[in-house]
Write a structure and sequence with these properties.
- It contains 10 helices and 18 strands.
- The protein has about 400 residues and is α+β, with helices and mostly antiparallel strands.
- Strand 13 (about 240) and strand 14 form a beta hairpin.
- The longest helix has about 30 residues, at about 330-360.
- It starts with about 40 loop residues before the first helix and ends with a helix.
- Mean pLDDT is about 90; it is low at about 5-25.
Length: about 400
């Protein structure tokens, strides 16, 4: 069993061999996790911006978040700014939220509507809803500028089951549909193209930890029984994780047969109506699908959610999340969604504290690494994906700037 690191050494990684079971993990499995310096290095974060966040797919919203002509959503990550907007032709497009004049944001808010034109708030340059340049304030003060060449710069976009993804730079990750192919048949039961925003907003909350600390907590279910009384009440001992395989992880929480001890769980199990669109195997089950590097979908009988981590600094992260409902939601289903939200909110707060505690540990003089259990292979394979992109994460000590690059 390997659980510790020595300065300057590199570590063997277990290659993905399909879905592992706890009994199938070899004794030689590297259980040491990432070294402590990777959770507070600003130099590493700049590299993560370039090699992870800019060139991997990021979920922005559902198409139902921008239902009308001129409706838009913005999305910021890794010093990049995206604008998702529905054009006059009904087509959704993605652009850099960057005026071609001086680089100002052409829209300033998280969401809104441009009734007929996108007007930069700085100097008034204007763009059509398809991104083409429409007008330049006091144009006679500029040299000749071609409207076609000076439109908003497009961002690579893919719509998967009506969820809108963007990627700012080309990278090693294939298309979203290809990445998610392994779970496509299963999640297609959730009527994803029909979903509607449950609250009309994207929630964003800040937490003073590295983004990987949040992912580490979320990528393993070993802690559920101890740290999440509500979830454990809902799942019992049936919860299990699968490792990241080619950028996708899957976790399943089948409901416990008991009525539930807490009011929220007991009421949720009693009120949750039969979902005609789901197979029997998924009527009493919460399914989570993680997509590398920072996205998780939650598929519930009553709703669909997503959440993701947006790194602000090496020690600060914004957790971004949204909830979607079914268009024909009955009163019972709406109440069930409210109760599942209560259970979820408690779990989120519990996970936030766990992320803070584990993040604090790396600064202690007593911290000399971790030792993962067989049940934490989701976290281990997440680390493997990171180390494959940035091999310096295998080093016990932070290298010099040149060595890191």
């Amino acid at each position: 069993m390997i659980c510790s690191r020595k300065a300057g050494t590199r570590f063997n990684r277990m290659p993905d061999r399909g879905v592992e079971t706890a009994a199938g993990l070899p004794d030689s499995w590297d259980r040491s996790g990432l070294p402590g310096w990777t959770y507070f290095s600003e130099k590493l974060l700049r590299l993560e911006y370039e090699l992870i966040f800019r060139c991997h797919w990021q979920c922005v919203c559902h198409v139902s978040d921008v239902p009308r002509i001129g409706d838009y959503m913005t999305f910021d990550i890794a010093d990049e700014r995206a604008l998702i907007i529905r054009g006059r032709d009904g087509v959704i497009r993605a652009f850099h939220n960057l005026c071609r004049h001086r680089g100002s944001r052409v829209v300033a808010h998280q969401r809104g509507n441009c009734p007929g034109v996108i007007a930069c708030p700085f100097h008034g340059w204007s763009y059509n809803l398809d991104g083409s340049l429409r007008g330049i304030a006091r144009r006679d003060n500029f040299p000749p500028l071609d409207n076609d060449e000076w439109g908003l710069k497009p961002v690579e976009m893919e719509i998967w089951n009506s969820f809108v993804f963007v990627r700012f730079k080309p990278g090693p990750q294939p298309g979203v549909a290809s990445v998610m192919a392994r779970v496509e048949a299963e999640v297609s039961n959730y009527r994803l193209r029909e979903l509607l925003p449950a609250s009309g907003r994207i929630d964003c909350e800040s937490i003073e930890v590295n983004w990987k600390s949040v992912r580490d907590v979320d990528n393993e279910g070993y802690h559920v029984a101890q740290a999440h009384p509500g979830l454990h009440d809902l799942y019992g001992k049936g919860y299990f994780d699968e490792p990241y395989i080619d950028g996708v992880a899957r976790s399943v929480g089948p409901f416990d047969d008991g009525p539930g001890r807490s009011w929220s769980v007991r009421s949720y199990k009693r009120i949750l109506p039969h979902a005609d669109w789901l197979p029997d195997s998924h009527q009493s089950l919460w399914l989570y699908v993680g997509m590398f590097p920072n996205l998780v979908f939650g598929f519930y009988p009553d709703s669909v959610i997503f959440y993701q981590e947006i790194p602000i600094s090496a020690r600060r992260t914004v957790q971004r999340s949204a909830i979607y409902r079914y268009p024909d939601e009955s009163r019972a289903l709406r109440l069930a969604r409210y109760l599942s939200g209560r259970i979820d909110r408690d779990a989120v707060e519990e996970d936030r504290m766990l992320a803070v505690w584990s993040s604090e540990a790396v600064h202690s003089s007593a911290f000399d690494g971790i030792c993962l259990s067989n049940l934490e292979y989701g976290m281990k394979t997440f680390h493997d994906h990171l180390r494959a992109l940035i091999p310096a994460m295998e080093l016990a000590e932070e290298p010099s700037t040149g060595g890191l690059a």
